């Protein structure tokens, strides 16, 4: 299944990644991040990943307050 293989462009397109990578790349990136963080006095920049930074991603825009948004969700829960 190329939709489950991280090295295929189909997987990249379905999961909004920037480029395809192998599972070994992902494991190695995690190991590098762990090694550098243990051996560094400062917080190091993480090794690049193909997906977008989830902390910078905004899923929608609204002018509602959180309580108003919760009320709208409660009404539409059905």
Describe this structure as you would to a colleague.
This protein has 78 residues and is mainly alpha-helical. The protein has a domain at 1-52. The protein is built from three helices and no strands. The chain has helices at residues 9-15, 23-38, 66-75. It starts with 8 loop residues before the first helix and ends with a helix. The model has no long low-confidence stretch (mean pLDDT 85).
Sequence-ordered SSE layout with sheet pairings:
Elements: H1 9-15, H2 23-38, H3 66-75
Helix content: 40-55%
Unreliable spans: none
- In N-to-C order, the SSE pattern is HHH
Number of strands: 0
Characterize the overall form. Answer: flat
Distance separating the two termini: 36 Å
> Quick check: average pLDDT?
85
Alpha plus pi helix count = 3
Beta content: under 5%
The Rg value, from CA coordinates, equals: 19 Å
Major β-sheet profile: none
What would you call the structural class? mainly alpha
